[in-house]
Amino acid sequence: MAFLAPGDRAGPGSVDGHTGLGLDGLGSTEPVVTKALGGGQTVLSVEDLVVRYGTAVALESVSLNVERGEMVALIGANGAGKTTLLNALSGMLVPSAGRISCSGKLAHVPEGRELFAELSVDDNLRLGAWKATSRDTSPIYALFPKLDKLAKRRAGGLSGGEQQMVAIGRALMARPDLLAIDELSQGLAPNIVQELSRHLIRLNLETGLSVLLVEQNARLALGLCRRAYVLDTGHVVREGLSSQLLDDASVQQAYLGGPLVS
After folding, report:
1. Sheet containing 42-53: which strands, arranged edge to edge?
2. 68, 192, 207, 214: which could form a disulfide with 37 (CB 3.0–4.6 Å)?
3. Separation between Cα atoms, residue 235 and residue 76, nearest integer Å
4. What whole-number distance in Å separates Cα of residue 115 and Cα of residue 155?
5. Which residues contact 17 (CB under 8 A, 6 or more apart)?
6. pTM higher than 0.85 for the full model?
C-alpha cells in the first residue's frame, strides 16, 4: 500500500510510547502498537477552538493534538460536539475563535458515509482523488479485497460495512497524512467493526498514517487508540492515555457501561 510518500512511512525500529491494549473487540490478545514518527511531530493542533450556531455554543475552548503516526480517540455522547469538531477541521464550519493547524493533508470520513449512491464503487473512490495526481484505485482494493469484486456495483446497493469501506477508501484516495473518521462503528455488526478495525490498525502500522477516531463506542475507541480526549457538551473534560481513561471511574460510569464489542 502506498498511501503516503516513502519518506513518511513507518519503518522498522523503536516504538514510541505505546503501552498497548488488548482488544477484546478485535478477537486478539496481542497489544496494538502505534508507531509515532519523526520524534513527536505534530500533524494536527487545535487550540481554544470555539464554534457557535447562532447564539448557541457547540464547542468551547477545545484543544487537542495528534502526533505523526499516532492514533487518537475522541469519545463522547450524542450531542457532545464531536461531529461539529470534525466539520470545523474539514472547513465545513467556520470557527468563531481559536486556531487549527494541520501540517499535512487531512481527509474526513463523515458520519453516515455520505456516498454517491447512484455511482459505482470505483467512481466513488475516484472522487476522493479529485485533487490528487493519481486516481489509481488499486491500493484501495489491496486494502479492501471485497471491494475489488464490487467495483462496478452501485454504492447505494452495498451493505453498511461495504459502504464504510468505500467511505474510508475514498478518503485514502486523497493520500492524507491524517485520517479523521466520524463514527466508524455506527450501525454495523460487531464482526464488521472488527474487520474495519483491523484494516485501520494495519494502515497505521504499515504506512504511519495518523488517525483521529471520533467514536461513541468508547470501549472500541480506547482499545484502538493510545491516547484519547473526552468531549462533553462542547468541552474537553478528560484527556490522557487510553489505559488511564479506562480506569477512570467517571469515564467508566458515563461511557463504559455497555457490553464489550465481541
Report:
1. 56-67, 42-53, 97-102
2. 68
3. 10
4. 7
5. 36, 226
6. no
User: Which residues touch 40 (CB under 8 Å, ≥6 apart)?
Assistant: 16, 67, 68
CA distance 191 to 96: 41
Helix, strand, coil distribution of the chain in percent, nearest 5 = 30, 25, 40
DSSP string, 136-175: --HHHHHH-HHHHTTTTSBGGGS-HHHHHHHHHHHHHTT-
The cell numbers describing 147, all together, are 471491494
Per-residue pLDDT at 8: 34
What's the alpha-carbon Rg for the chain, to the nearest Å?
Answer: 18
Residues of the chain with pLDDT under 50: 1-39, 258-262
Please state the φ and ψ torsions of residue 183, each to the nearest 5 degrees.
65, 70
Q: Which domains does the chain have, with CATH numbers?
A: 39-104+177-184+210-254 (3.40.50.300)
Distance CA(166)–CA(43), nearest Å, equals 25
Pairing mode of beta strands 106-109, 71-75 = unpaired
DSSP line for 185-247 = TTT--HHHHHHHHHHHHHHHHHH--EEEEEES-HHHHHHH-SEEEEEETTEEEEEEEHHHHHT
- Three cell numbers written together for 198: 483491523
∠ CA 7-11-15, rounded to 5° = 125
